[in-house]
């Protein structure tokens, strides 16, 4: 968007050339008519003939510019994904795959830029050639059309001066045209972005009383883009107040999308979600504002020292605060640049807990912390005896060893619920959950060993 805004700003310097160029061309032709008479029509005819040629070249240039901006958007999007997930990319050695994707997009971009440059070169060549061509043709016609027409020094130098005056507006036209073409593409893109439809919030029903469930999904289907297939499909799920519900599934099964649908961040296809009470959300990628640790946790709320210290201890932050200069008053850089991933995740979790909401949506908050810290956080916060006991908790997790302690497990696959029930019930079914647990056990050892029970 910043590039598009810059293009619109650049075109403003050419606005006055639109009318001044026309005025200069008109006056130049008028005075040339006074000097050379009807012979000037031959030169004007050449200019008129070149107008459709320039129009075709300009239209093609605009089409290329539209394609180029789309390729640029794709490249910037994938570069943002690479930079935000660079650790994962390095862990799995995905650099060659992503490098090839970026290079392919860059090749397309450079190919379009080359074609656009060639088009612009032709436009510039024609518009620089026009005054010379017009001069030669006009003088030739003037001298040949009538034997009485004498091209003396007075007429020749006066006409050449007028042709030179004509040269400037004609030579400026390519830049004006190019700038207007690019600005028109940018204007359309900005208009599409700023005039885009808002998300329809009607699919999320919020109730305060006379409803016995904390969250209810009713035939809920949601998508990230109205033009694509539903990411979450026909989900029916009832979550009672005070329950700890774990959402599990393979990578890409729709766990994070299910949480986003609850928050109203997805397009509704059909069905609805009913929510009773306030929601606190802990994202997978922690969000940290530029300020002190205390400011990040309080997030505008009044300080309750006893509760504040209790949350710091439960989130295993006390030891970190002892190391940091200034303790909880230590300044955090932009996006938490001077904190580790685990510290940022725990501060994000502490902030959500401090808000004392009715429902907690936790998108894999234990993924960025060590195993022993994860166990401490689960026992002190999320578990049956934690700070959030009595609160409704939806926990997206890959930490299978905590699942025996949750009230209900929801197994997702391809955006739909495959199974749901208690830990023992799902094990007895020997379905999708049992397969996930078997895979996990092979990699890490028995569940009892992982939990230390």
Automatic annotation (TrEMBL):
MF terms (GO), sorted A to Z: ABC-type transporter activity; ATP binding; ATP hydrolysis activity
Q: What is this protein called?
A: Canalicular multispecific organic anion transporter 1-like
Where is it localised? Membrane
Keyword flag DNA repair: no
**Species annotation:** Leptonychotes weddellii
What range(s) does the ABC transporter domain occupy? Answer: 215-439
Sorted alphabetically, the keyword list is:
ATP-binding, Membrane, Nucleotide-binding, Transmembrane, Transmembrane helix, Transport
Q: What range(s) does the ABC transmembrane type-1 domain occupy?
A: 1-182
**SUPFAM superfamilies this protein is in?**
ABC transporter transmembrane region (SSF90123), P-loop containing nucleoside triphosphate hydrolases (SSF52540)
- InterPro entries attached to this UniProt entry: AAA+_ATPase, ABC1_TM_dom, ABC1_TM_sf, ABC_transporter-like_ATP-bd, ABC_transporter-like_CS, ABC_transporter_C-like, P-loop_NTPase
List where the protein spans the membrane. Answer: 12-33, 39-59, 122-145, 165-185
**What domain of life is recorded for the organism?**
Eukaryota
A single Pfam family it belongs to is ABC_tran
GO CC terms, sorted: apical plasma membrane
Name the PANTHER family on file.
Answer: ATP-BINDING CASSETTE SUB-FAMILY C, ATP-BINDING CASSETTE SUB-FAMILY C MEMBER 2
């Amino acid at each position: 968007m910043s590039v598009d805004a810059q293009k619109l700003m650049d075109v403003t310097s050419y606005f006055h050339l639109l009318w001044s160029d026309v005025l200069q061309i008109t006056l130049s032709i008028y005075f040339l008519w006074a000097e050379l008479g009807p012979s000037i029509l031959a030169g004007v005819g050449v200019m008129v003939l070149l107008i459709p040629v320039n129009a075709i070249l300009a239209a093609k240039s605009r089409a290329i510019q539209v394609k180029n901006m789309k390729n640029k958007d794709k490249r910037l999007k994938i570069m943002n994904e690479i930079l935000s997930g660079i650790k994962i990319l390095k862990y799995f050695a995905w650099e060659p795959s992503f490098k090839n994707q970026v290079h392919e997009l860059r090749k397309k971009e450079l190919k379009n830029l080359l074609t656009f440059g060639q088009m612009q070169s032709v436009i510039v060549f024609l518009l620089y050639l026009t005054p010379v061509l017009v001069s030669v043709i006009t003088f030739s016609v003037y001298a040949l059309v009538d034997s009485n027409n004498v091209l003396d020094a007075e007429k020749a130098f006066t006409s050449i001066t007028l042709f030179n005056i004509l040269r400037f507006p004609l030579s400026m036209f390519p830049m004006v045209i190019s700038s207007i073409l690019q600005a028109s593409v940018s204007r359309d893109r900005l208009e599409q972005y700023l005039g885009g439809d808002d998300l329809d919030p009607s699919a999320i029903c919020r109730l305060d009383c006379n409803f016995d469930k904390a969250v209810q999904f009713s035939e809920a289907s949601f998508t990230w883009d109205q033009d694509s297939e539903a990411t979450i499909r026909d989900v029916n799920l009832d979550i009672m107040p005070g329950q700890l519900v774990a959402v599990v599934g393979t990578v890409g099964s729709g766990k994070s999308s299910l949480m986003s649908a609850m928050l109203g961040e997805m397009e509704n296809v059909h069905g609805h979600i009913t929510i009773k009470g306030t929601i606190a959300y802990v994202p997978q990628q922690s969000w940290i504002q530029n300020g002190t640790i205390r400011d990040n946790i309080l997030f505008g709320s009044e300080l309750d020292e006893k509760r504040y210290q209790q949350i710091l201890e439960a989130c295993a932050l006390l030891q970190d605060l002892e190391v940091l200069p200034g303790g909880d008053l230590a300044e955090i850089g932009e996006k938490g640049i001077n904190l580790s991933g685990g510290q940022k995740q725990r501060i994000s979790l502490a902030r959500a807990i401090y808000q004392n909401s009715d429902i907690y949506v936790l998108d894999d908050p234990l993924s960025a912390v060590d195993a022993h810290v994860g166990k401490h956080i689960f026992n002190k916060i999320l578990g049956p005896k934690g700070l959030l006991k009595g609160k409704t908790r939806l926990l997206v997790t890959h930490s299978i060893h905590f699942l025996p302690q949750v009230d209900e497990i929801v197994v997702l696959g391809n955006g739909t619920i495959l199974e749901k029930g208690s830990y023992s019930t799902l094990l007895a079914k020997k379905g999708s959950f049992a397969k996930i647990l078997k895979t996990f056990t092979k990699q890490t050892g028995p569940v009892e060993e992982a939990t230390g029970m």
